[in-house]
Structure formats: structure tokens, C-alpha cells
Amino acid sequence: MAAIDWYGTNASYFKSYVKDLHSTFGKPIWITEWACHDFVQNRPCSKPETLRFLNETKGYLDSNVDGAEFVERYAWFGAMREGNMEGILKVRNGHFIECLFWLI
Question: Angle at the Cα of 56 (from 30 to 35), degrees rounded to 5?
Fold first, then answer.
């Protein structure tokens, strides 16, 4: 088993990284943390950016169509904003749509 953390803004890069890791080591993958964070501008992602990124990446992880069947476990790290952590996300029709509360 290979365990990874991943932070960034590009869902395609995330998917490629996970696939490449599996191709390189041939082991099941556990994603112990992943989140949307813009390290180029050193800022947390906006709420719309976070929701778009989360829906695309989680959709990939939950789908066996794109070849993510080797991902055995995953854990969303959280969405940050000005040092606070965005809390539980609401789901509608299988997609994350909004944050229910902020932890301060």
C-alpha cells in the first residue's frame, strides 16, 4: 500500500498523480489527505473552486470507469479560508454544493 497527501487546484493533475503513483509502484493507494489549495498564489481556494475541485476529484475516486479502482481509502483534508476550516459539506444528488458551517 502507498499512502499519499495531495494539495493543489488542478483536478487533472491530481488524477494523473494518483495514476502515476499506482503505475510506478503497483500498490493499492490510500489518499490520507487531499484538498484544494493554491500554492502559486499562496491562498486557499474559493468556495466555488473548492466545490468544483472536490466534485471532480471525488467523482474520479468513486468511479471505476477512469481506473481509480486501486484507490482503497481516501480522506478529504478540509477547505481552508483565512485560517478557518470549512466544515461539513452538503450533498445534493451526489455532488457537494455548499458548506453547512465554519469552524473558528
Answer: 55
